[in-house]
Automatic annotation (TrEMBL):
GO terms for molecular function: signal peptidase activity. Keywords: Hydrolase, Membrane, Protease, Transmembrane, Transmembrane helix. It is an enzyme of class 3 (hydrolase). The chain crosses the membrane at residues 20-39. It is a single-pass type II membrane protein. This is Signal peptidase I. Its EC number is 3.4.21.89. The gene is lepB. Residues 16-221 form the Peptidase S26 domain.
């Protein structure tokens, strides 16, 4: 083989490698934009349902697509394409209305037209109290972030969706609120960790439909102690095997 042939072969091999990388990047972009987006839990606002260190897949097609379905949210269009309403009780990733560069994750408790209010720690929807049953106490600090037992309740929404909430104190700032009337095209979001959640009761406010990114579906990895999944040497002590491949309720 001549020197020219060897050079041509090396050049062709490099070109093929670049082509494969570009195709892989395009495929990853398509999957992230239209199908699934990975998301890590940044705070304790959804405890006990979701813990810091949980890594989720969020389905992008669940509610249709908006500009926030695309990386960096380019202002290419407004509203949603192939829009579908979230159901009450869905756990949703959305863009923080005052600053859409920030992702939040909360539970949908109020749909357009609903009246939402907290009274003595009980959620009221359209003047009807949501069914709330005390299950007992959780003592695991990995779940509660507290060094003491914490009360846990099971709420069941009018459509039958049921989930657990934490009650850190009987005098939480969000335990008694004014009545909120959810505007058309907006949703009312709350965290399951009721006394430690910045949600629609506070700074988040009503969330426009356009800001919805997708529905949280499954936990594909979970690690405690603030560890990174890349810190393989911490897996034996910090990985939470019981949470991996769990569906998000």
């Amino acid at each position: 083989m001549s020197v020219a042939d060897k050079t041509k072969k090396k050049s062709g091999g490099a070109g093929e490698t670049v082509s494969v990388i570009v195709q892989a990047l395009i495929l990853a972009l398509v999957i992230r934009t239209f199908f699934f987006q990975p998301f890590s839990i940044p705070s304790g606002s959804m405890r006990p349902t979701l813990l810091e260190g949980d890594y989720l897949f969020v389905t992008k097609w669940a509610y249709g697509y908006s500009r926030h379905s695309l990386p960096f949210s380019p202002p290419l269009f407004s509203g949603r394409i192939w829009a579908s309403e979230p159901e009450r009780g869905d756990v949703v990733v959305f863009k923080f209305p005052p600053n859409p560069s920030i992702d939040y994750i909360k539970r949908v408790v109020g749909l357009p037209g609903d009246k939402i209010q907290m009274r003595d720690g009980v959620l009221f929807i359209n003047d009807e109290p949501v069914q709330r049953e005390k299950l007992g106490q959780i003592t695991d600090p990995d779940i509660t972030e507290m060094d003491r037992p914490v009360d846990v309740y099971r709420e069941t929404l009018p459509n039958g969706v049921s989930y657990e909430t934490l009650d850190l104190t009987e005098t939480g700032l969000g335990d008694n609120t004014r009545e909120f009337v959810v505007p058309e095209g907006h949703y009312f979001m709350m965290g399951d960790n009721r006394d430690n959640s910045a949600d629609s009761r506070f700074s988040v406010g009503f969330v426009p439909a356009e800001n919805l990114v997708g529905r949280a579906n499954v936990i594909f990895f979970s690690i405690a102690g603030g560890a990174s999944p890349l810190e393989l040497w911490r897996w034996p002590s910090e990985v939470r095997p019981s949470r991996i491949l769990n569906w998000v309720d």
